[in-house]
Model the fold of this input.
Amino acid sequence: MAGTNLQTPILQVDHLSMKFGGLVAIGDLSFTAPRGEITALIGPNGAGKTTVFNCITGFYKPTEGMITMTRASGEKFLLERMPDFQITAKAKVARTFQNIRLFSGMTVLENLLVAQHNALMRASGFTVLGLLGLGGYKDASRASIEKAVYWLEKADLMDRADDPAGDLSYGAQRRLEIARAMCTGPELLCLDEPAAGLNPKESLALNELLLGIRRDSGTSILLIEHDMAVVMEISDHVVVLEYGRKISDGSPASVRSDPKVIAAYLGVDDEEVGDVLVEVGDTSVIEELDGVAPVAQGPAETSSMFEGPIADTVEEAGGETIVPASPAASKAAQVEAETAAKSPVEPKGPAQ
Amino acid sequence: MQYFIQQLINGLTLGSIYGLIAIGYTMVYGIIGMINFAHGDIFMIGAFTALIVFLILSAIFYSVPVVVALLIMMVVAMIMTSLYNWTIEKVAYRPLRGSFRLAPLITAIGMSIALSNFVQVTQGPRNKPIPPLVTDVYNVYGISISLKQIVIAVVTIVLLTLFWYLVNKTSLGRAQRACEQDRKMAALLGVDVDRTISITFIMGASLAAVAGTLFLMYYGVVAFSDGFVPGVKAFTAAVLGGIGSIPGAVLGGLLIGLIESLWSAYFSIDYKDVAAFSILAIVLIFLPSGLLGRPEVEKV
Amino acid sequence: MTAISDNTARSTSSPYGEAIRQALYAALLSAGLFFFFIGLESTQDISNRLILRSHWGVLATVVALVAIGRFLFIAFVLPAVDRRRANRGPIAVVAEKDQSFLRRHRFKIMIALLVLYPVIIVSTVGMQGSLKWVNNFGVQVLIYVMLAWGLNIVVGLAGLLDLGYVAFYAVGAYAYALLGTHFGLSFWILLPAAGIMAAFWGVLLGFPVLRLRGDYLAIVTLAFGEIIRLVLINWRDVTKGSAGISGIPKITFFGWFDFNVSSPNYIGKVFDIPTSGAYYTIFLYYLILALALLTAFVTIRLRRLPVGRAWEALREDEIACRSLGINTTNTKLTAFAIGAMFGGFAGAFFAARQGFINPESFVFLQSAIILAIVVLGGMGSLSGIAIAALVMIGGMEILREMQFLKLVFGQNFTPELYRMLLFGIAMVVVMVWKPRGFVGSREPTAYLKEARAVSSTFTKEGHG
Done:
């Protein structure tokens, strides 16, 4: 890390609002992510965490607000004004997805090479020179494989380099997705629930990978996480959201004892807040409270032909857009909006 | 003004036929997410069956009341197209269900080629004209409305009402909508998915058969290749209206019919199809899910 | 036809009882399906009125054939398939390890065979007899191979479903036909020009449809294909409409010699060999072979370049691509442009070969056939696509030669009539048999230790 302007936060979010129709997913949210640190974004389901990510990485255009990314060089980027791919290419923000999005039909190595697209594109003279076998594409290609190997080792995937990404175990896919994001050479890495669905051993390996990234490459990390063990252990800074608003912000320890946070997680007016406080660290409790089904194994199901324009998709987006005032009402509205045929048991958890 | 209204009526007549075919596309798309490319040829099979039934009727009986003849033609055509569509679904689409998106598209195209060539081989490549069935023309304020057009309008409205009832008010319709939303879940809840899909194909085919019979009545001629153009137009209509949406299919059909007849009336008949396709492209550029389609939310 | 699917309750009773039951069902169903269409035929009598003619005998034969076919399928084919599957078990996964000489050099051998093909034909059936084989098989199949390889870039690699590919073929053909007849420009100048023009159209049509996905993209590309065809039909001042353009100049061998018997540079005169129409055909064969190989070479090269990897990544997951800083708009446009360019090359060649073109050659059916070849071959796989083109197009051509069938079905039997019918049925059968195409696996573009083919269970087909 250049370290020239350690005092400026790498990411500054000011008065961010995101509305879907009349629904306020994020309302006037401001927070900063300090440079070189791991910032965790937590909150119950439907709090708008993924929406914040989508705004930062350009997949959604926020209704209001400003997102400023300051690179180590001091260069500033207003992310809300940039198209998504440029946010990665120019502002050097990389991300992963809650439902792992790997190129499952390509090998692990190829996944990492695709991530180095822009550099290789320049080296291949935007295809023309590469096609003719001229220029420095060979060297660049070799360098890209070296970089991929570096991250393969970090992510403990060397043995699987030539296997299709879709063939990896769930935990390995998560690590690969992070390695792939790192191959874009980011200064800020946004991770959407990296520990979801991992077993304790895999979770531990993940922590190490993330701490290693922060230590060795100086990349700042912003992560959404439900697993409090991960959050408490690796993050330097925690931001808590509820219904699209920030309810707490500070060190893991301070957030942990904030009554508002506990109330948000455990529901309202529990007298035994203190007792349950210990349990906050327990994933299963939190999941139970949120009604989160653990993410299904493997990403294979995510893009079938039936996905289409059917209400399933709409509803999932709706899951993030609960009206602040009465979440129950919005749930009811959803059910009502569904056709009579829709089962009361929802096949998937809401998008958060 | 009279000229305009005249063209409007012509366009709506044509549009009704497109709309009836388009429903078949849209329903199949809605329930299994595939383009049933053979649907246009199912329409042609319907028109051809109607023709043959007409020939049988006129060979056996000296004269049959037109209403009875039309009704018999329609019903037999519905049975035949249903049989065809049901078989096609079972043979060409069901084995591929859920495997690979393009595979059923290719079998559908293959089926379309096979069907039209099958009819060409067995029935010959020539146009098949029949004597006009309905000839009355009424003159209302200088606008001529033929009885054919009235029949088409009435049949379409009656069928659409029936159809709307079937889809929205019966348990069959509920099963269909359930399959549309989530097939696995529907199966878990006891919906017979295979049967529901088969019925969807049969319903689509029946509407296409009606469209085919009306087409035969309106134009008085049919040929083996007549499946393609109305098929593509109806498909265009379904997409224009928002594929998967049944009201969208009807709206799209009427719009395509109107565009065609108005364009031929005021601009050039040569470019009427170009106009229809261009409007499709323009609409989709601004409304990527068609007019009444539910916008596809990009899941990230 | 009905002899597929439905394997319920197969194991219950004896296979023959079940087979008879199934055969009866099939007979009943086919009787229903064919009653009106084979049993009765509408024909015009002398006074041009439609009458019905009955063919109950043919109907009975067809129904019986279906029943027998179904019986054989259930009683013998299915159990055999099951046994094979059971015997194979998990061993099948290993296999393919031993790289025999033939396997390792299969591409070189294939290319050598293709290069020698006209020589073999000429030496077996003579100069004059070779015409048919080189032209109908060689050139015809290779045109489709090239077109399918071009479309493969768009559909197979980038995962963009394009139902209007024939439009670019038409652009290339008309570019050469019009510029060649009006300005007398040489094929060698117009070939790249036709490619560039087609690529330009590819970008032009690509732009508005970038936002569309899946089936919406499919219908709009189909619409564009139809628009181009309709414009060719109706813009009579330029294209001469349905009458088409004739007298398209033949290709010369870079001006050194040509193939016009009357010309002073006629190949026969230059080399002092007897006059024959076969020279031009053989020359065309090598030309289309070279063009097809160029397409393959460029495709293989591109796949190893970032742009090719980005195409495949786009097919796998567009959102992930964007999150990696890939400009998906440009990536899609390059796929459209390069795919279209090869279509344009093929079109220019087609015009030069035919000497006459009209819009009839560029109907939707052509797009469908090309797409079918890509999917039947296995999306993205060059060798699979070549096999599919050979099987489908070559098979269709070979049907013309099946004159012996007249002995079976009588003198009135014209096999050509059944070409497209069989083509359609073959498309269905092959697809049901091999849903991922002949070659479903994918070769990786880079590897650390060894290049292992990626099974088709992992690859995706794109969302549009």
Summary: Confidence is low (pLDDT under 50) at residues 1-11, 91-97 of chain C. Residues 15-93 of chain C form one domain.
